[in-house]
TrEMBL record:
GO terms for molecular function: glycosyltransferase activity. Residues 211-366 form the Glycosyl transferase family domain. This is Sugar transferase. Residues 31-190 form the Glycosyltransferase subfamily 4-like N-terminal domain. GO terms for biological process: carbohydrate derivative metabolic process. Keywords: Transferase. It comes from the Bacteria. It holds the Pfam family Glyco_transf_4. It comes from Salinisphaera orenii MK-B5.
Amino acid sequence: MTGMPRTQAHAEHPIAAARPVIVHVLDEFGVGGMETVALTVIARTCDRYSHRVLCLRGRGVRADRAEALGVPVEALGKRPGKDVAAYLRLTRRLRALRPAIVHTYNIGALDVAFWARLAGVRRIVHAEHGRDVSDPQGSNPRYRWMRRVLAPAISRFVPVSADLERWLVDEVRVGRARTQLIYNGIDTARYTPSESEIGIDRAAPDLVACDILFGTVGRLDPVKGFDTLIDAFAEACAAEGDQRLGLVIVGDGPARAALEARVAEYGLADRVRLPGSRDDVEAVLRDLDIYVCSSVAEGVALTILEAMASGLPVVATAVGGNPELVAPERTGMLVPSGDALALAEAMRSLAAAPETRRAYGEAGRARVCEAFSVAAMTDGYIRLYDQLLGD
């Protein structure tokens, strides 16, 4: 647990031996939607399974949260490339832990399936939360080949969107019987609409004094398309009319300096805030008027679901699983990826239509509560795990 000696944090719970052991293997336990889903599933099933987390490289900033739940997190110190020594360490740890299931995540942990089989693990789940940053369309022949070759070692691929499932089956040619779609879900009790439209302190340091506040949340990485969002916001400001617009981009990452430079080039430093990562995203969302997702590629964006649960209308790029979340002219608007002018027009359109924003926000929350709750997601993983354990 947080603050206790590492040896004590890794001590075996007296009941743990009675529960099936599930080892989750990630590149790092960092900040992102995939890691949030993993942590949520772990937290909600600790009474049913004994979870462990192995990180191929470093522990990551979410490790302490897992250990606060009594779930040990270990880092294997993998170096870039195919570090055989790290994979041998992984194999030894799996042999010692003797998991009933190994659950791996995304391309960074895909080849763990081979080493897990070498360690004697029979049941392997591989989750596909989105395509690699360097391969947003999933067309990299080497990555496709790796998935196809390792498919016989993997009990189930778990795509988090119908788009990813179609891609796995039709393009990667993983057999449909090996896939099980489980949509990401969020806590609709945590993410709720603002109780009042009055009294929002938009003069606070992380926000902007404005009439209409756009916002987005995500790692500051090129795949999120935040450069296009800033271009679109600048275009919207150039034709904003009587309304003063503001933008907040919550998150941190390697593109931060470039994005700050872009904001400065447009002379929008008084309109745009990049406050870094926040632990109270639900509070930030309640301060927004419109949520914008400008991604180049997505699986199922948790941040869109969080925004919809918060009663916000959404403008999103029509990529990946986004069209499965945002219903045009019902919960928001979809635009082509990388098209700053189309994005600006959608942002301006919603900024000028308060009744439409309200209707979209109400419909969006209803949709999330019905189809994308954290309970539905957790039940999906429990059914999958129990089915495999029964085989």
